[in-house]
Queue: 3 jobs
Job 1
Amino acid sequence: MTEFDPSLITGTLIHYYVTCKREAWLYSRKIHADQWDENILMGKALAEIKEEQLQDFPFSNLKFDKIGKQRGHYLVTEYKKSMSNPEGARMQLLFYMWQLKTSLKLKQINGKVISGRRVVFVEGNEANMKMLEELVAEVSRFLERPAPPPFALNKFCKGCGYRDYCR
Ligand code: SF4
């Protein structure tokens, strides 16, 4: 029996999966990282500051930092306090773009993630959307496993809120 409902997959979960599969599994089971972790507290503070700038969409509870039209297509912008894993940030934003595109039946949507001076552009072309759909299916299959993969030290452990839990 499936223990994880695929409709519960979020952009954050996609980011975690691309960063560390163990982290994604723990998060999916609501085993939350240390709430006093500096990175998490900083993220919460930033989220509160940005709250007024966020736009709500009537079709869902999705929220983005900024969405606008640029030369005939939609452009979603997301600001991050840090970007230790640009690939994770890219896939997270692509997930949001995919949700917007399919929900609103948009023709073209692109995105960018901004962290300090760093900017990562995300193209919403067909190949990327297909890759995202395959990733979502892969994450769903992965999250059906009854236990997380074992701890394996990696370059993201140092800044991870689960580091005390894992070691
Ligand atoms: S501490 Fe390391 S192994 Fe554990 S969840 Fe975080 S990144 Fe993954």
Job 2
Amino acid sequence: MKLLVTAAQGQVGHALTTQKKDSTIEIISLPRQQLDITDPISLQSAIEQVKPDVLVNAAAYTAVDKAESDTAAAYRVNETGAENLARACKQIGISLIHISTDYVYSGEKVQPYTEDDATGPLNVYGASKLAGDRAIAAILEEHIILRTSWVFGLHGNNFVKTMLRLGKERDELRIIDDQRGGPTAAEDIAITILTLCQAIQSRKAAWGLYHYSGQPTTSWFGFATAIFNRAKAMGFDLGVSVKPIPSTDYPTPATRPKSTILDCSKLKNRYNIDQPDWRERLDAIILAECGGQK
Ligand SMILES: NC(=O)c1ccc[n+]([C@@H]2O[C@H](COP(=O)([O-])OP(=O)(O)OC[C@H]3O[C@@H](n4cnc5c(N)ncnc54)[C@H](OP(=O)(O)O)[C@@H]3O)[C@@H](O)[C@H]2O)c1
């Protein structure tokens, strides 16, 4: 089976590109310069060249705050791009695995969100991703949309790297404690996507919408504290003190949902995929970011 992966240089795209080779799955990932999902001609030429069995879309406009003022660009990638991919897959009869976000929900539900819960994005990024999810579901039956949250990985920019950088520069950090979610390692998303591909390959796929996030659930403050505690345990004591603050003390252009805990039992029931423990993915990043200083 051949996979064509978009956004080879994104966190998830890169994690997929660096997965150990599986003799039955060949992964070809292309950067934006070679496959622009907003450009149907670029898309068609990549598909003709690679001739994939499954298309995996890891590309997105992910700048949550910038999207508030750059709305057309966010929709161009997250809605029109997703629509282009679904149409291309339908035309040649292949399936699409697409990644979406917890920010499609309003965050007012205290209990975990299931795939059947009503959406209600609070910001342009979430609304544009939701529009993409809907476009795919309307065009292509053979799709899997994986809604995930708080993604971090070795490659690219993310909260873990930002904390480690700021922790080296400052004595104190004030971190939001009233937004809750599940940090998810890009590496684990990549492994899950390969498991889904194996199911597609053996014709055991159950199409549709799924939630996938790491556990345990935490706040950004809890996430930051875990990062610094783990760094200290590994011998990198950054000596920074972390203080919890409410969201109102850190205004941003985009409003974020308060609680987007994802119920991932549908993925477990249909594909036997467990929620990974995100804490186990911290060491590699801490080592990469702090390894030169003890
Ligand atoms: N990051 C998170 O915390 C988070 C949370 C929940 C869900 N997600 C979802 O998870 C998926 C992967 O996110 P990520 O964290 O890996 O994102 P990322 O690191 O920001 O990577 C996004 C990638 O998409 C590429 N891209 C943007 N526009 C494109 C286009 N028109 N054609 C092709 N490629 C394009 C970007 O390329 P350039 O850099 O060249 O622009 C970049 O490589 C996305 O669907 C995102 O919505 C992410």
Job 3
Amino acid sequence: MSAPLLAVSDLVVSYPLGSALGFGRGRTFDAVKGVSFTIEPGQGFALVGESGSGKSTIGRAILGLVPVASGSIVFDGADVAAFGKRVPLAYRRQVQVVFQDPRSSLNPRRTVGEQIGQVLQRHFSTGRTETERRVCDLLGKVGLGAYFVDRFPGELSGGQRQRVAIARALATEPRLLICDEPVSALDVSTQSQVLNLLASLRIELGLAYLFISHDLAVVRQVADVVAVMQRGRIVEVGTSDTLYEAPADPYTRLLLSSVPQPSPLGREERRAARRALRAAPA
Ligand SMILES: Nc1ncnc2c1ncn2[C@@H]1O[C@H](COP(=O)(O)OP(=O)(O)OP(=O)(O)O)[C@@H](O)[C@H]1O
Ligand SMILES: [Mg+2]
């Protein structure tokens, strides 16, 4: 088998603890306590777990935004932990991120075209005509027409803004896309449209995903492998099918039991139930 795209081994990430008065200074809190997993090229890998379990911290460590206390992160042979604060541009090109809230990740004072164009120029030094062509191309990939080039983020719906954030992330032609709760801020019907888009982009572009979510139902559409996290550790890993059909860990079972199931009533039964409701006195 070929080498994985990303290999995370025994990763520990700590945050400094300490009050404003200086008590406890020097003490640290391990948000990630020895996590290991690999992501193959083109694979959809999901981290699922309750709030505070350390999912985003793992994403931040891979992006080089927080230091690695111990363990290693190796991307395509390169030691990410050794980058320190100077993450090379070539690495940033290959590993991109989409966050939950595009309102805070997009610049409200720049048009969609300017923001995507800026990324293209920084990474590929494209000229003006080539930049314009690629911006339209990228917007097309996420289902937005040329009309959106001159729009400001504030003029867009939540789903459209998230599509712009995805297009901007794709501008560098990454091999790994970290999606940290990318649909949590969207309403349910927009969620499934954006998830469908992410799923088809993965196939079209051969992208690998690290998909972070607290919601197992959301993850099923986009991940082949799901790792369940609890308090800084991975408690269960499985292909999405085995994990959903036969969860071994009690915590996974608990998470699954909170996933809404489709209505058990058939169409006729639902109609009958509605008729009965209408007939009932108010
Ligand atoms: N900058 C920070 N300084 C100190 N502690 C932090 C910092 N960021 C996160 N933490 C703590 O680290 C733990 C893991 O946080 P993290 O954001 O990784 O969780 P998460 O699984 O992404 O949660 P959520 O689902 O709420 O986004 C939490 O206990 C959190 O309070
Ligand atoms: Mg998080």
